[in-house]
Amino acid sequence: MGYRVLYREWRPKDFKSLVGQEHIGKTLRNSVKSARIAHAYLFSGPRGTGKTSTAKILAKAVNCEALNDGEPCNECEPCVSVNEGRSLDVIEIDAASNRGIDEMRDLRERVAYVPTTGKYKVYIIDEVHMLTTEAFNALLKTLEEPPAHVLFILATTEPQKLPATILSRCQRFDFRKISPLEMEKRLREILISIGAEADERVLAMIVRKADGGLRDAISILDQCISYSEGPLSLETAYAVMGIVKEDELIELVQTFVDNDPAALLQKLNMLFKEGLEPGQIARDLMEQLRTMMLLMVCGAETKLVIAREQEKSIMIEQTNKLGMEWLSTAITALAKLDSENRWRQNMRIMLETTLLGLLPLNNGVVQPVKHEQHRQKTTASDKHSGAKLQAGMKHNDLSIGEVIGAWDKIMEAVKEKKKTVHAFLSACEPKEIKRDKLVLVFKEGYLFHKEKIEEQDNCELVLNCIKEILGIELGLECQIEENKPEENDALIKAEAVFGPGIVKVVD
Length: 507
Known about the structure:
The protein is of the alpha/beta class. It is built from 22 helices and 10 strands. It has helices spanning 6-9, 22-33, 51-63, 77-83, 101-110, 133-144, 164-167, 180-194, 200-210, 214-227, 234-241, 246-257, 261-273, 278-298, 309-322, 324-339, 347-356, 400-417, 419-425, 447-454, 456-470, 486-498, and strands spanning 40-44, 90-94, 121-126, 150-156, 171-174, 361-362, 365-366, 428-434, 437-442, 475-480.
């Protein structure tokens, strides 16, 4: 038999082996013991927390020929066939690739057939939230009056997307993220069983990266073992996972403590040269700041943080200097940046601008960035002081990065003055400053929005807000990525008038 990856080798085979889901294992085991088997179950929760594994354990238990206190024996033919993936009575369906009404109609026909060997024919439908509305309706008919020999187990990471009619017909179990201590314990068991060694800090890093998903943690460990030629070291883990090193994160945070923009940019440049992605840097820094917040709120002895005492001491010192208000502001800014990651063409510029926007500090309150001699800090009484520059400054003193960094404030100012202009402006992004004009690029197909912003009154409103925030008088040039056929313009105009939604254009 060929090599089996660790997460498959260590997949739990009975209820008592489930990690972090003891409440679910106990309930299902008691149900099997008392023969109180529901006809449909819903397993919901984050990925890698044991939903599919639990479904297979339940499938074995209901057909096991030698139950042991509600646990499958894993030795009889029904149990062995499930473990080996050849059972004819346990059918796994991936709803992501079988999401249509035809597949569900076919399922309705197949449920009439009795099991081959056991008492139940078990259908495990993974990622069930991916089914279409029509497919859900077809499945509902089967769930309402299933044959006595059929058991449905639905698994999903997004239960909120399931219709209420489906939810009401299932016995629901919510799987939780697995705690860091439970995950670290299982990783140690795996290392001992295969005779491998690892630096204690490597396990903490893997647990942090996996974010409550044991399957992910085991997969990362497997990858590190394959990459390493000896005991797992920190360098190996950093190389495999592509994350920012702990000491580099501490140094990055220190640039905020020292209020040093130049050191901040130099540190970021060094991380980029190491091959780290801007999005990953943002996520790792956000996690670091969260850890600092936990230390401030819960204390150094909290089990919510896995770190060495020396690292905890440094982070606590930095946290005391930065303050909770700054931590909250910085985490919010990084979370917003991360959510917009896939929409940004130059994530490096956005990361640099976002982090510079958090400098400098004054008693834990975020203040505007310090500029060169020809720029000055605005007064705290100014409503938009976080981004406004010296009045009368020339346009050639302004970079597009500064405009992008202040764009959220500009949009907010526009929204306060006229919400419809804000809606039209939301379809574009600042691209460059060309001569004395700010170039705005509208998304493909949003010609109507572009034309509305070009109207004199709307254009003047936007320019006034730019001057209010940045202190500079600019012109405006609107561009569009690609002109769409005229029939699509009608759709865009309809959406602008009636709001986003399904709009059908009829000749």
